[in-house]
Model the fold of this input.
Amino acid sequence: MIPGLINITPGADILDLGPLHIGWYGVGYVLAIAVLVLVTQRQAIRYGFDPSHVTNALIVTVILAVIGGRLYHVIDQWGCAPAVTDASGAIIRAAQLCYSQNLPAIVLPPYAGLGIYGGVAGAILGIFYYTRRNRLPIWRALDAVVPGALFAQGIARWGNFFNQELYGPPTSAPWGIAIDCAHRVPSYPCPQFPITTGFEPLFFYESVLDIGGGLLALWLVRRYAGRLRMGDIGSFWAIWYGSVRFVLEYMRQSYDWTIAGIPTAQLIGIGLAVFGVATILWRRRRPQPPEFPPSPASDPIVGREPGVAASPAEDGAAPPPDPMPAPEPSVAALPTPFHSQGQTTVALGG
Done:
């Protein structure tokens, strides 16, 4: 097996001072949330929202996202995987952590492990709560969130590199990554696959595809502003991310959560893609005008309600001429005491 080009095995912590641990994964999440907020605020303005809604909704959304991500991870790691040993009985890989035999570990520190699908479900619940409370359209809010969310997912995936997780089968490609023995799944023990073995960097593939999806979403918003319906970009996320996960999951090994032998992540992925397509078709079941507000690139009055035309002054055009200008009085026209608004009394010379 040709050694991977990225022949390093990084540590999970960027700072380790006794009881204080700062992990790369946490740093990645902070950066991802910052990018999410900045991009979503710009999209909120485009859709006519007050950008302060983004920061106001952030706390409840992040809390529910963490809870959802944690629950998904706990379900995924509920069962125990036995230790892997070689012919002499030496431990190649320690037994996998399982929450079914250690219930306090679900809520007690150190907290490690979040499932992306659970996090997304929690975040959507938080957005639904906030929009319902503030009487905002949920689908329009999701349209605003999607580009930044895809960027955030792509950034956060790099935490998997430092944790040495989310990798695929061995590869001879020059971009393969090395995984040390302590982080190997049972399918790839060290005696059979030495430390210099390169593995498919699934985290990198997903990161690139997520960021690419965010750029594509922004392009769609600008290029097809007049043809998009409310919720179309939200549906795009379901199609894009569901398809990405469905394909990449084929390269993973040692699944812990399956249904009828099929990885749960794949079932959710294909379900999301079908849901996205169905909702886009449903919105087009009958002709109706798109509900997209003016684009800032073509309309300087950002935030105007959809369907409200700009005034000539806002468009920078000269006001139209009066369709019925009043006739100029003749030389013989004389003002009289009977002159009233809208009337002109004309005296005829004899």
